Each structure stands twice: as structure tokens, then as C-alpha cells.
């Protein structure tokens, strides 16, 4: 039982991070039906931003977190403007390939910047480490608490915005039909840019939280993390916001339990679930089956 | 004139859908564009609301040129377009759909008044306000998009085939609504395949054929004309 609770804590801690990152995939897909392959790399940009900001004397976790959300968010809006928007009305494959190109660029350009370079860098310890006993030998530490609390705050905020604000209504309207949304007086390009901004901010936050737990960062850290978050988004039903949360948690928990069972199994476990879900419920756990318009 | 369209041209690639159409809508008028499928009616409305690019001609609204104005800015100037195929936001509730109609408005009190007006006009929508629009029937969705358009407090209403796919009894209801919209002071530009119905409520009409205006005049005169009766009224 102790062991189970301990693993569950690890799993949830990892799962909320996947959920944060999955949110960007699912939101961008929901609004322009694009799998943004460059999204994972924004996680890395966020981690490196925090890495540099934290070196400024007097700047701790909160400033690092804010900067790590803002920098990828602004970068993401620029990417959308320069790389994706000109291709908006072209075949979807063109944008998809462009996204892969952007991803390769983001993974390789920082290599040339001396301050970043190709090597692993130790991530600063932004949170004072302490452990608390939960149940028997099972413990929870301050980093895990930070991860879970920060993620839950951000996810709740996001869901609140999408569900209850005028801005969120506009986002859902654009996601349903861009022409109809424009006829309501909604600035469609603005809403799309905003979606990229929010998605990337969450990815940046995810990057910082992940680096607190695994404090070695490098320019390729977003590749695996991004692809697992993408799987989480598909698992939950791409385009569905609650689906991304569920998918992320499921991925995190399954991965941790599978790793505990056999350390080689961890990476594959999430994908096995993905295959099963796609076989029996292709729209994902919470995705809506495509409705044919009548 | 509230709306003056001159020599409007719209193309999709090599296909010229609208080949130099001129017409106008004045305050308090219902003007209808009738014509068969493919006559360019929808393209004209899409050009007016900025969804389709103008290849030539001019659109003047309240004396201002609308060419190259983006769709959401056109809405802000007071033109509300109910597109073909209705396009209610099926993933949002009835209430949220109506609120989106008032997206450009900042007068909270006025929005509440409009909401009451719409609910009074379509009591059914009030009953279903929490329901997702996707669960409404076709006729109810038509009421919803009409109500949504009225929420914008627009100065000109563009309607594209509001009777399409509706049962005859609902068609009558939709046309009654259009008449009451005009009675509330909002001019309507109505595009219809159902020419007899459209001409029966309109003040003036234009007959379109393959992207050109072939006939125009008072709606009651058009409805009497031999060619129109033969071509569109199925007589």
C-alpha cells in the first residue's frame, strides 16, 4: 500500500506536467486542426529561460516561472505569424511539414548559441527540498507539491477562461467555424494567436516544473517530453481540454507504475495504452466523434 | 442609400461567380436577390461581409467603402450576416450562441434588453437556453441564428437562404420574423431560392442569372412578370 501511494504520487506529479504540455497540442489542434510539432521544443525554451533568469541575483522560482511562460508564448505567436498563418488556406500537410521544420530549427539553432550549446546543463534548485511523510514510508516532497499545485492552478485557470469568459467563448466559436466566428465580429487571427500564446505559456511552465524534478536540461529535452504529451493529448481526445488533463494524468501514472514493474517498460507503456484506445475508441477517451454536418 | 453596390465582381480562381452586379438597399427596406443555384447570390453576401475577396467594383455602406475591410470590422460597423447553412455554433449552448451575437457590443444593459427581445420573439429559445445548439432541430437552429444576428443590434441584416431545408410551416414563421425585424427598423437584404416567398415580403427585388442582374424592380411587379413566374415560381 505504501509503495502504491508512493508510486501514485510520482505518477500524478509527472502526469500534471504532461497535462500542461498536452494542453497546447490540444488547443492548437482544436482551433486550426494542426499538430504543432514545434510545441515540445517550447518546453525546452521555457526551461532554458528559467535557467537564465534564475541566475539573476534575487530572482527565484516565481520570476523564473513567469519569464519561462512569457518567452515561449511570445515566440510561439511569432512562429504562428511567420510560419503557419501564410499557409492557413493551403493543404493541411503543408503546415504540418512546416511545423516539423520549425521544430528542427528550434532544436538545432540554440546549439550555436554559446550560452546554450549542445551539452546538458544542471538546472538550479529553485525550491527548497523537504520531505513530508504521507502514509507509512510513503513521502511527498516540496518539489512534487510545487508541481502539482502549480499545474492545478494553471489548468483550472485555463479551463475557467475557456468555459466562462467572453474570450473563451470566442475561442470555442473559432474552433467550431472560422467564418461564422468572423461574422460575430470576432478577430479570428487574434484568437488564433492568443491560443498559441496560452498553449506555449503552459508548455513553458511544464518545462520549468519538469526541470525541477529532473534537473538536467538540454536542447533536445522537448523531443521526448513533447511526444509523450502529444500521446496524452491523443489519448484524451485531441481537441478536448478535459481530455488533455485526463490523458496527461493517465500517461504519467501508467508510466511510473510500468517503470516500477520493469524499468524498460516505462517508455512503452503509454504507447500500448494509446494503441488500445485508438483501436477501440479512435476519437480518444473524451473526444467527440466527428459530427457530419447536415 | 444605406448600402450601394456597384459593378461587384467576385472570382474563385478562374471561375467568375459574380460578374458586375449593382444594387442598393435603403433604410427600412427589405430587398431580395433571387435566382437559381449558382447565380452568385451567396458570393455577393460573402463579399459584402468580407469573407470573399472583391475582384472589382465597390461596396459603399453609409457612404464608406467596405473593400479591404476585414470581416470582424464590418460586423463592428453594423452589418450582420447570417450565412448559408445556418452555422450555429453547435458546440455552444443556445445562450452562449446568443451572447456571441453581441460580441462586439460593450453596453451590458443593451445586450440584456436585446436578449429579452430575442427570447420574446422566440420563446422556444428561452426554454432551451442551457441546451447545446447541436441538439436543436433545423428549424430551431434557424431561429437561433436569426436571434443571434439580432443580438448584434445591427443596422443591416444579410440573410442567406433562411428557408433552406425547413418545413413549410417553419418557412412561414421565418418570413414573418423577417417582416418583424424590418418593422423594428432594421433593413434586410434577403437572398433566396424560394422566389415567391421572398418577393411576397420584399419591397424591391433583383433577379440574378449566372453572376449578373437580369431584372430588377418593385417586388410586387417582379412577382407578376411572366418570365419569373415561369423560371422561378414553377408555373
Account of the protein in words:
The complex is a heterodimer of chains A (294) and B (235). Helix content of chain A is 71%, strand content 4%. Chain A has 294 residues and is mostly helical. Chain A has one domain. Chain B has 235 residues and is of the alpha/beta class. Helices cover 38% and strands 26% of the residues of chain B. Chain B has 10 helices and 10 strands. Chain B has a 6-stranded mixed β-sheet with strand order 6-7-8-3-9-10, sandwiched between helices. Chain B has a 4-stranded antiparallel β-sheet with strand order 2-1-4-5, covered by helices on one side. The interface between A and B is medium-sized, with 21 and 28 residues.
Short descriptors:
heterodimer, A: 294 residues, mainly alpha, two-stranded antiparallel sheet, 4 strands, globular, B: 235 residues, alpha/beta, Rossmann fold, 4-stranded antiparallel beta sheet, 10 helices
How many separate helices of chain B? 10
Number of helices of chain A: 11
Q: Any guess at the CATH architecture of one domain in chain B?
A: 3-Layer(aba) Sandwich
Report, as a whole number of angstroms, the end-to-end distance of chain B.
Answer: 34 Å
Mean pLDDT of chain A: 92
H/E element string of chain A? HHHHEEEHHHHEHHH
CATH class descriptor name of one domain in chain B:
Alpha Beta
Which shape of chain A, going by the Cα principal axes? globular
What proportion of the residues of chain B is helical, as a percent range? 25-40%
Low-confidence stretches of chain A: none
Structural class of chain B: alpha/beta
Greatest contact pair? A-B, 21 and 28 residues
Helix percentage range of chain A: over 70%
Amino acid at each position: 500500500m505504501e509503495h502504491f501511494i508512493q508510486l501514485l504520487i510520482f505518477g500524478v506529479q509527472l502526469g500534471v506536467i504532461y497535462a500542461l504540455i498536452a494542453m497546447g497540442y490540444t488547443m492548437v489542434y482544436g482551433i486550426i486542426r494542426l499538430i504543432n510539432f514545434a510545441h515540445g521544443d517550447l518546453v525546452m525554451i521555457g526551461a532554458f529561460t528559467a535557467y537564465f533568469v534564475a541566475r539573476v541575483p534575487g530572482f527565484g522560482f516565481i520570476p523564473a516561472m513567469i519569464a519561462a511562460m512569457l518567452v515561449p508564448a511570445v515566440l510561439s505567436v511569432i512562429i504562428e505569424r511567420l510560419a503557419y498563418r501564410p499557409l492557413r488556406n493551403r493543404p493541411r500537410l503543408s503546415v504540418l511539414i512546416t511545423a516539423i521544420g520549425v521544430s528542427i530549427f528550434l532544436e538545432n539553432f540554440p546549439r550555436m548559441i554559446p550560452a546554450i550549446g549542445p551539452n546538458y546543463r544542471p538546472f538550479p534548485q529553485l525550491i527548497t527540498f523537504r520531505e513530508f511523510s504521507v502514509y507509512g514510508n510513503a513521502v511527498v516532497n516540496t518539489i512534487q507539491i510545487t508541481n502539482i499545485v502549480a499545474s492545478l492552478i494553471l489548468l483550472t485557470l485555463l479551463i475557467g477562461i475557456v468555459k466562462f469568459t467572453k474570450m473563451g467563448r470566442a475561442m470555442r466559436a473559432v474552433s467550431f467555424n472560422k467564418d461564422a466566428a468572423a461574422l460575430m465580429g470576432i478577430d479570428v487571427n487574434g484568437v488564433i494567436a492568443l491560443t498559441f500564446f496560452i498553449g506555449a505559456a503552459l508548455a513553458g511552465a511544464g518545462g520549468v516544473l519538469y526541470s525541477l524534478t529532473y534537473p538536467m536540461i538540454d536542447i533536445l529535452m522537448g523531443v521526448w517530453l513533447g511526444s509523450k504529451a502529444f500521446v496524452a493529448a491523443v489519448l484524451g481526445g485531441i481537441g478536448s481540454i478535459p481530455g488533455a488533463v485526463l490523458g496527461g494524468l493517465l500517461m504519467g501514472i501508467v508510466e511510473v507504475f510500468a517503470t516500477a514493474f520493469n524499468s524498460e517498460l516505462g517508455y512503452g507503456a503509454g504507447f500500448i495504452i494509446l494503441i488500445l484506445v485508438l483501436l477501440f475508441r479512435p476519437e480518444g477517451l473524451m473526444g467527440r466523434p466527428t459530427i457530419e454536418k447536415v | 442609400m444605406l448600402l450601394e453596390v456597384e459593378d461587384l465582381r467576385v472570382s474563385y480562381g478562374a471561375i467568375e461567380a459574380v460578374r458586375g452586379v449593382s444594387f442598393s438597399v435603403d433604410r427600412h427596406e427589405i430587398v431580395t436577390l433571387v435566382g437559381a443555384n449558382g447565380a452568385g447570390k451567396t458570393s455577393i453576401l460573402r463579399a459584402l461581409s468580407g469573407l470573399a475577396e472583391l475582384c472589382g467594383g465597390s461596396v459603399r455602406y453609409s457612404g464608406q467603402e467596405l473593400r479591404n475591410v476585414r470581416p470582424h470590422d464590418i460586423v463592428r460597423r453594423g452589418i450582420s450576416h447570417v450565412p448559408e447553412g445556418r452555422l450555429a455554433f453547435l458546440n455552444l449552448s443556445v445562450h452562449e450562441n446568443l451572447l456571441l451575437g453581441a460580441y462586439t457590443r460593450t453596453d451590458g444593459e443593451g445586450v440584456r434588453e436585446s436578449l429579452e427581445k430575442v427570447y420574446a420573439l422566440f420563446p422556444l429559445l428561452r426554454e432551451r437556453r442551457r441546451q447545446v445548439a447541436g441538439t436543436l432541430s433545423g428549424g430551431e437552429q434557424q431561429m437561433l441564428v436569426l436571434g443571434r444576428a439580432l443580438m448584434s443590434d445591427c443596422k443591416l441584416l444579410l440573410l442567406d437562404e433562411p428557408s433552406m431545408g425547413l418545413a413549410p410551416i417553419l418557412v412561414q414563421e421565418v418570413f414573418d420574423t423577417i417582416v418583424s425585424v424590418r418593422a423594428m427598423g432594421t433593413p434586410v437584404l434577403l437572398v433566396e431560392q424560394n422566389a415567391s416567398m421572398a418577393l411576397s415580403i420584399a419591397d424591391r427585388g433583383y433577379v440574378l442569372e449566372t453572376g449578373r442582374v437580369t431584372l430588377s424592380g418593385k417586388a410586387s411587379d417582379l412577382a407578376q412578370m411572366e418570365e419569373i413566374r415561369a423560371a422561378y415560381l414553377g408555373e
